[in-house]
Amino acid sequence: MTPDLRAMTIDEAELFAVAQGWPRFRGEQIWRWVHEKRVRSFDEMTNLGAATRARLHEVATIGCLTVAEVQTSRDGTRKLRLVTRDGQSIESVLIPAGDKTTQCISSQVGCAVDCQFCATAKMGLKRNLDAGEIVDQVYLGQRLLAEVDPDRRISNIVYMGMGEPLHNYDNLVTSLRILTHDKGAGLGQRRITVSTSGLVPKLEKLGNETVRPNLAVSLNAPNDQIRDAIMPINRKWNIAKLLGALKAYPLEQRRRITFEYVLLAGVNDSLADAAQLAKLLRTIKCKVNIIPYNPHPEASYARPTPAAVEAFQNECKRLGLSTYLRMPRGDDIDAACGQLANRVNGSPVVPLRIKRTGLPPPPPVE
Ligand code: SAH
Ligand code: SF4
User: Fold this and answer.
1) By CB count within 10 A, which of 18, 41, 316, 326 is most buried?
2) Global pTM value
3) Is the CB of residue 121 below 6 angstroms from any atom belonging to ligand 2?
């Protein structure tokens, strides 16, 4: 397989250039075409000589996703179904809020974690996305946004789409380095949030990286008994181990960890659960995003009534826990949290069969 320039950090692109016998700066030049100007073919790199471009065709590719489908929700949320070069479908969601737009991106095709309430879990894990496929979601998202409103930019990125980002650690970190580089998209690391189900050893590793996104952790239960039942990963790294790793996590000043708490009727939504949660998190600098369960056909949980949601949140607040209610966005097009499973109008999308040809990537889809 020829190396993919979309999946390289700027340092790797420089090493790649040197390996071709070119000066180092040529690596930066090519990298900027891909990540700053976002071109999708070598022929658009107009300040490179014809010989260099011809050589690039032979020795490298630019990995491109193609936009297969865009669905728009009545609340303005847009779900993009994107297809990889080997015909896998992934989903990415654009969520406008005021003058800001958050993009929710995928890190894997499917997921291996098997949380009982999550539609992505039911797909199983097909494969990891490479770093180029992760960042191209943002580039295509930005392009789509600009078509609708040229002044609108993606302001925040959340790794909360399909997949468990920490199960795809190296590509996650590479994608973060690419997206935050000031010669590329230049996104501030405070504008990026990585959400995890709590892979303790990888959390410890992430804390030692130079790139520091915000951290969100899907806690979803106030005790091990409930968490074991809804998130099997808890049997490997229980709440004590998870909170231990989070207490040791090097948070930058004025930053807090976000906990996600999917509220499931009759499972984790009682006032006693709220009290236990508040006690559990008392000593951690954090806030809790309460997400009323988004229903989908693969699970039989129910969303609590608005009164039960309010009572749960009030109890948390009364006990000093800072909480935010995350109402579903894009749920009419299966774009809300936990609903991403490559379904269109309820039916699964069959992966396209595309043969690997080693040819340059398919042309961009406008
Ligand atoms: N794998 C990562 C990120 C993707 S899941 C993680 O688990 O953190 C993103 C969020 O969606 C998680 O917080 C998860 O708890 C939540 N979620 C999953 N299924 C849901 C559902 N059916 N309704 C509401 N939230 C859900
Ligand atoms: Fe995977 Fe996150 Fe869904 Fe759990 S909630 S199955 S970790 S995507």
Assistant:
1) 316
2) 0.92
3) yes
